[in-house]
Amino acid sequence: MRHGHSARRAGSALIAVIAMALLPLATGAPALAHQAATTAKVTTAAAPGDVVSAQRIYAPGFEYARVWHIRYLSTDTHGASMTVSGTVIVPYGSYDGPRPVIGYAPGTHGMGDQCAPSARLKEGNDQEGGLIHQYGWQGYAVAVTDYQGLGTPGDHAYMVARSAGHALLDIVRAAQRLTGLPGNGPVGLAGYSQGGHAAAWAAQLAPTYAGELAVKGAAAGGTPANLRQVAAYNEGRENFGLVLAAGIGMDSAYPELDLESYLNDAGRAGIDELRNGCDFSPYANKRLSDYTTSNPLDTPAWQTRLDQQNPGGSPPRAPVLLYHSTDDEIIPYGGATALRQTWCGQRANVTFRTYYFLKHAEAAAWASPSVTSWMGDRLAGKPTSGNC
């Protein structure tokens, strides 16, 4: 039977909303007997998705599963090999048929290595733990990427599209190779916010980059589908720090952009602090002009690179669920509707869901049960025609 399938569906809407808040509190008596950390196993890795090292860990709240911290090979935006870290979660017990793997793309965690999702999951205080449980409780294996440069050397390539999409697809490959799950087993791709961007890119890259993966569906919520639009939307607003973070990410991937040449003294100090931290609040209600001598976003070089990160250049082959709130205070709703229109025009199979009166994080929690249900139907082979 499917692991905990029927028992945990009841009340799942409430669970999704409260699990993120309560999970760090439910860790007082860890059952370490069967989940003590083990010495990392180092392997000979050569191809994208190969495991470089793997270590069994104890992750509070995931006592129902085996959990590994891994490093694996992937491909950066320029086609060069890179090493990425992440977490693989495989529930105990049997599964009726090939166990699906969810490639889970986290939302924004920060820029320093200590912010990495794998570090937070190990500590038991990851803000997306409740969302990840929605998949793990169905018996699915969940492979959670840290992305390029978050938990590994170098700056975090924040919002760099191809490296994020590759990292997500390759941690699915790594999970299959690490645990012996079938390489042709069903795969789902899921993420919200930064993770929605990565999941959307992974969905459209999968046919050419990882064609052997049996991707059955991709769910991308709160997706920043137009980065220049997002930057303008957050000027002078509470989450402006995300714009600076994206500047660090772009500059790390495309050094010819030369972010340093645009910065004033406050910008140099702010960027140095941000690239090593998890806290975006010091940058609330600021503007690019507070940190720069001239606006890089007014230049063709920056505009071109930012536009290259927008999803929609090719249609995903697998069905896609896009979902977004009209009251999202960070990522404009219009970017998601434009992506829907683009993919529908390319004859992609798109389901679009609108949520009302919910802020960015609220929409992620509220939508989680229905997103998980949609994904479960795709993994089970049930057809969908979308609503283009």
Commentary on this structure:
The two termini are 35 Å apart. The relative contact order is 0.13. The longest helix has 20 residues, at 360-379. The chain has helices at 5-9, 12-22, 117-123, 129-136, 161-179, 194-209, 227-233, 241-253, 265-274, 300-307, 333-345, 360-379; strands at residues 41-42, 51-56, 65-75, 81-91, 101-105, 141-145, 186-192, 214-221, 320-325, 350-355. It is an alpha/beta fold and 388 residues long. Helix 2 (12-22) crosses helix 4 and helix 4 packs parallel to helix 12 (360-379). The protein has 2 domains: 5-226 and 310-379, Alpha/Beta hydrolase fold, catalytic domain (Rossmann fold); 227-307, 434 Repressor (Amino-terminal Domain) (Orthogonal Bundle). A 10-stranded mixed sheet has the order 1-2-3-4-6-5-7-8-9-10, with helices on both faces. The chain has 12 helices and 10 strands.
